[in-house]
Amino acid sequence: MTNLVIDIGNSFTKIAIFEKDDLLKVEQYQQPDIRQIENFIGSNIIGKTIISSVKQVKEAWHLSLVDKHPVVYFNSGIKAGINNHYKTPGTLGADRLAAVIGANYLYPAVANVVISGGTCITYDYIDAGANYFGGSISPGLKMRYKAVNEFTAALPLINADSDFDAAYGDDTESAIKSGVQNGIKYELEGFINNYIKTQKAYNIILSGGDSIFFDTLLKNSIFAPYIKIEPYLVLKGLNAAIQKHND
């Protein structure tokens, strides 16, 4: 038996099949249809299905899928082994909650700092006792570059540069890179330091589209030995949630 895991975001839908904890296959769609999903499932026998969405699900494929496979909808009521102390759990982003569940499931009994780099950068912390209290949200890498351009009259729109490693810029373009990328680097280090200052054992888990870029920013820091890159952390968290559901 396999688990079907579906994560519906604002721009893309990610679909994965797991055999227990093993990720067998994953695909990303902009607007999937039921034929694509059924082709993706192929000959796999689906035991459990979980859907997580940042929006109300109205797509036609969803109705067809529900007719064929029993579905569990991921929400803040699914504990999946963690103690959620968030004051307004109904407003907690499903992706953030799934990532924290995934971190605790993959690396139990140790403190985990979960950093996801996408449209926004999210920082979440779960302690060794599986207690989650909350985190932080800040503008993402591309959003910062875009803001510098859109909210000024003369500054250009430039792209991130993973090879940039200067303490300051000596022209306008490099000054923007320094401000944006060093700003994120110092932000990463500051948040991590704040979370782990009382911890003897911890992980820094990087996820999301900018995880490799963040790893580059931190490669020479004191935190480098503690970094683990988990590009499919949300999907793994959803899989953990469906496995623990009704256990």
TrEMBL record:
Keywords assigned by UniProt, alphabetized: ATP-binding, Coenzyme A biosynthesis, Cytoplasm, Kinase, Nucleotide-binding, Potassium, Transferase
CDD domains hit by this protein: ASKHA_NBD_PanK-III
EC class: transferase
Binding site for substrate: Y86, G93, A94, D95, R96, T172
UniProt keyword Glycoprotein present: no
Protein name from the UniProt record: Type III pantothenate kinase
Subunit: Homodimer.
Alphabetical list of InterPro entries matching this protein: ATPase_NBD, Type_III_PanK
Gene assigned in the entry: coaX
Domain of life assignment: Bacteria
